[in-house]
Amino acid sequence: MMTIKNDDVTEDLNSFVIDHLIDIWMVEDININDLIEEIEEKRDEMFELAYKNGFTSEITVACSQQLDHLLNLLDKKTSL
User: Fold this and answer.
1) Percent of the chain at pLDDT exceeding 70
2) Is a pLDDT exceeding 50 seen at residue 46?
3) Per-domain residue ranges for the chain?
4) CB-hemisphere CA count at 13 Å for 64?
């Protein structure tokens, strides 16, 4: 069983809050067309990585997570 120190929880919470605030700031300032173009480019990159390295390779999964982040930003932007 893994023990979690209070410092670890606080650090994770602080990181989450900072990331969330950055996302809010980015959503307000980002151009939706630029964001859509970036999503399309990241999606193409992910498919290329998956083809070369496999769908479960670390690099493909990391790219997929970046794509998820961009899609979440688009969702936030369009729901404002």
Assistant:
1) 64
2) yes
3) 40-80
4) 11
Outline where 1-80 has alpha helix (H): 6-29, 32-53, 58-78
Q: How many angstroms separate the CA atoms of 38 and 57, rounded?
A: 22
Q: What is the DSSP code (8-state) at residue 56?
A: T
Residue 58: band (very low, low, confident or very high) from pLDDT cuts 50, 70, 90: very high
What are the b/e assignments for 15-37, b being 16+ CB within 10 Å? eeeeeeeeeeeebeebeeeebee
User: In a 3-state reduction of DSSP, which class is residue 80?
Assistant: coil
